[in-house]
Amino acid sequence: MSSNKRILSGMRSTSPKLHIGNYEGALHNWVDLQNDGFDLFCMVADLHALTTMFDDPKAVSINAREVAKDYVAAGIDPNRSVIFIQSHVKEHSELHLLLSMMTPLGWLERVPTYKEKQQDLGGAEREPYGLLGYPVLQTADILLYRPHGVPVGRDQAAHLEIGNDIGRRFNKLTGSEVFSEYKYMISEDELRAKLPGLDMRKMSKSYGNCIYLSDTPEDTAKQIQSAFTTPTKMRKSDPGIPEGCAVCQYLRIYSPNWEQQWAEDVAGERGCSQNKKELTEILNEYLRPMRERRAALSDSDVEDILRDGAKRAQVVAGETMDAVRSAMGLF
Ligand code: TRP
Prior knowledge:
Layout: E1 6-12, H1 20-35, E2 39-45, H2 46-53, H3 57-74, E3 82-85, H4 91-100, H5 105-109, H6 112-121, H7 129-132, H8 134-143, E4 149-152, H9 157-174, E5 183-186, H10 190-193, H11 217-225, H12 246-254, H13 258-267, H14 272-295, H15 299-328
Parallel strand pairs: 1-2, 2-3, 4-5
Bound molecules: tryptophan (TRP).
């Protein structure tokens, strides 16, 4: 029952701004798939954001609009692809509940991301019941669209596997073939997918080491200005170590001349400020089309896109729920 061309993916609305690491790790692939003619369903996972931001639901909802804007800015075309907010399509909540009855607790307790988040939240009195069900909700998100594949960042592999396990279990328990397996589409471009932050740690808003898709050219220049380079390279003539230098790592990905730039950096023939200046120009050019698409988008355009997206998503999700209810004898 899965469509050959349907693709589903999503990101949580825990932050109002996506960064270039989110783009290279996942969003970039979505845009490529769209341009290859797949039917893309791009979801903003506001319900998933509530598993950790339960104390600020209004922010989750405001963020969701901003994330949708970033999707469009990144090149998701709302005329070709479906952009929607998870909570607007109530079938996600319904399928989550039904699947939660069929999912063994042990499967969920073993998920590595669960243990991490559990610790972050600080104990069972603070940890919401919904957090344990995070992968079940994600499974509902996916199975509702019976997709061919799910393009995600590397960190989502465990969640995707549980999804296919739950789908198989549903079929077995109901003696049906409602769900078929979907493919895990994880970026093969290792360099881009693991884009470091500007301090060489993981790119994360809590480290302040990000370049955001919604930043101005001046923001980007300033961020690159403060980026981590070779600490022992005080002067242009000192040898650089490009492997450990954030600016050189970025040049490797974004600059067609990176080999020469690296060689000159190592040989003491170029300074960090020249690297920074060239990277700033290249990145600002790379981000320019995204900035232009964002500037052309009003808040009311986004509301229209999301309303239309929810309607189109609901058509597919509703069909799946009919099949699910009928397989379970719930009519
Ligand atoms: N868990 C994903 C993340 O943190 C977001 C997500 C929610 C998702 N539902 C999904 C991703 C369904 C792919 C498919 O990035």
